[in-house]
Amino acid sequence: MSTAPRLAAAKRDWGHDESGCTVLHIDMDAFYASLEVARHPELRGRPVIIGTGPRSVVSAASYEARRYGINSAMPSARARQLCPDGVFLPVDMAYYRERSRRIFAEVLEQVTDRIEKVSVDEGYMDVAAALTRWERPSAIGAWIRAEVARRFHVTCSVGIAGNKLVAKMASTNAKPDGMLLIPLARHAEFVQMMPLRGIPGIGPSLEKRLNAWGVNSVADLAAMDEATLARATGSALAAHGLWMAARGMDDRAVTPYTPEKSVGAERTFREDTRSMRQVRDLLRWACDDVAGTLRRKGLTARTLTVKLRFADLSYRTRAHTLEQPFSTASAMLPEATRLLRAMLDMPEDGGDGNGGAGGGGTVGGAQDEPLPRLVRLAGVSASGLQEAAQTAVQPSLDDLIEERDAAERRPGDGATKPQRLSRAEQALDAVRARFGSGAASLGL
Fold first, then answer.
1. Which has more pLDDT, 361 or 424?
2. β-bridge pairing 179-181 and 315-326
3. What one-character DSSP code corresponds to residue 217?
4. CA-CA distances (angstroms) from residue 16 to 19, 97, 130, 160, 302?
5. Do the beta carbons of residue 264 and residue 290 sit within 8 Å?
6. Cα dihedral angle (96, 62, 313, 360), rounded to 10 degrees?
7. Was 405 annotated as part of a binding site?
8. Residues near 322 by Cβ (< 8 Å), separated by ≥ 6?
9. Of 64, 160, 345, 354, which has the highest C-beta tally within 10 A?
10. Separation CA 272–CA 335 (nearest Å)
11. What is the pLDDT of residues 180-199, one digit of tens each?
12. Where is the site labelled Substrate discrimination (predicted)?
């Protein structure tokens, strides 16, 4: 759900010279909400808000709901106050991802394989090679819009330009259900009529900083030289990017494949908590979820990160790169617990990840351990991803000794404890694949 500012004056005919305009930005309109209306046609015309629960936030809202002032990231409780008669639905990411995959495969990829998927609901296309068949980029954009509507009963907006920056700004201003072509000769003019926040990447903090230097629009930005911009932003790199953007310039290429950088899972508690048991139970779920995703995608990871958000909405992260690549929750949870305790300046728990000093904080037992701060959200992520089939695992000396001892105790099965736990988690994968993700849970 895009919250980028739009300018009514920008949604007009900018001319029909399509030469050099080989970049398309495809942006689905209110994607999650539109998909829910597509599978529940009785909701058409009603304000639909995706995001339920007293502690949740709005993930998407139909255009009918936006008339009430509802935007993404708004607390769902506030959205209910603004629109008490709205239809509030839970997020169904599996459904949204499946629809997204089909839209890209069955529509966009029929035009070209030069596609950079940015998220489930948007992507860039480099159609230069496809013009031998299609002749005009606008013909491609019109066909995509028609096919997405016909096959999936949702709409999308298309921006056509000579680079990614202007194409994205064009699709934003074409919304909803529109298409905007910005000829090369009009790039600077189009960009410079926008407010500062119209440039992707300029958020509230940078906007405030630029305002302090008398820069209140992209036109003001274009009037500044690069050296002054560097002083205003405190970064020569950021200054150069802004200097180019203010002139409608962007040298980034459409990158068809961007390797996944991390896999994560997090949840917000229904009520802020000081309970180590509750936080660690959530981390156990997150480790299990991330590990299952890694195995499903045939990946291993090297770096584990724990994230906490506190009652005052501030947050902390702590990361550690493990000696061995991992794809199991049994390898992740002890390290996640150690990072949690270090983040909160709590003493080590003896290395098993199960409790506090002296055993007083046994998690899952009769006692608990108070945390020094109220925790609102917790989660983990795994990064440093590699293809599992191409990852060599060098056993440690401890592994070799345990493997020898295990072979002596159980002839014919010299598996170490990590190897046995890995087998158990793979068995869980098979159970969940057959009976559903909630059919079995991991106990560590």
1. 424
2. unpaired
3. B
4. 9, 35, 19, 11, 51
5. yes
6. -40
7. no
8. 302, 303, 304, 331, 335
9. 160
10. 23
11. 999 999 999 999 999 999 99
12. 32
Q: Same CATH fold, 262-390 and 1-184?
A: no
- Coil vs helix vs strand at 262: strand
DSSP string, 298-356: TEEEEEEEEEEEETTS-EEEEEEEEEEEE--HHHHHHHHHHHHHHHTTPPP--SSSS--
User: Catalytic site residues?
Assistant: 122
pLDDT for 14 beyond 90: yes
CB 58 within 8 A of CB 74: yes
251 annotated ligand binder: no
CA distances from 190 to 3, 11, 156, 222, 415 (A): 19, 10, 21, 12, 65
**Full-model pTM:** 0.66
The set of residues, in sequence order, having a beta carbon less than 8 Å from that of 83 and lying 6+ positions away, is 47, 49, 65, 68, 70
| Confidence band for 35, pLDDT divided at 50, 70 and 90 | very high
The residue ranges of every structural domain in the chain are 1-184, 189-245, 262-390, 398-435
DSSP 195: B
Fold of 189-245: DNA polymerase; domain 1 (1.10.150)
Residue 222 burial by Cβ neighbours in a 10 Å radius (0-12, 13-18, 19+)? middle
Domain 1-184 falls in which CATH fold? Alpha-Beta Plaits (3.30.70)
**Tell me: the pLDDT tens digits for 116-127?**
999 899 999 999
